[in-house]
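Supplementary Methods, section 5.1.

A reviewer requested that the exact input to the structure prediction be made available. We therefore reproduce it here, unchanged from the version used in the analyses.
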Amino acid sequence: ISNFLAIYFPEPSSFFLNMLRNPLMAEGPDLGLVIDCDSRIMGYIGVIYSERFFPEGYRRVHNFTCWRVHPDFKRYSLELFKRIVTDKNTVFTGLSAAAPVHQVLNFFKFDTLDEGKLIFNRPAYWWRLFVGDRPELALDTDTMYQFVSKSERSLLESHIAGGCGAALLHHQDKYCLII
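The structure derived from this sequence is encoded token-by-token as follows.
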């Protein structure tokens, strides 16, 4: 998959290999779907998953990462997308969707949120920011590297190289990395 994606994207195959072998994700569902033709990958749609808390409990969240199909197999592009979004119990996001993907997401009735907003899913806990010692927000990578593990650093570096922003909220020995 990583070699296939490196043909169509400017990142090297090692970038995609790092994404596919992300040690922060527990064993779980596949990281996407492929179009396989005679043991050759001709298309891929990827998702990075996580478990997030919602008012009704924990739910799986999938963020689309990359979507590419060989030109000879373009007619299967929408079918690939439709098959990955069949699970009605999963929340799907496209946090950094390219313009063509954004159009497809709109076609399938995905909601669009304003860019530049940080959304917290547990507002009842915001009061803690104003009681006692406050956490600090770090926007520079040198400070982030002081807190994160080796695998988190690798993930952070690969996302920054891909144009993503990052922040780290920390207090004493606890931290939250936001990419």
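The helical segments are 2-8, 13-20, 77-84, 99-107, 141-147, 150-161. These observations are discussed further in the main text.
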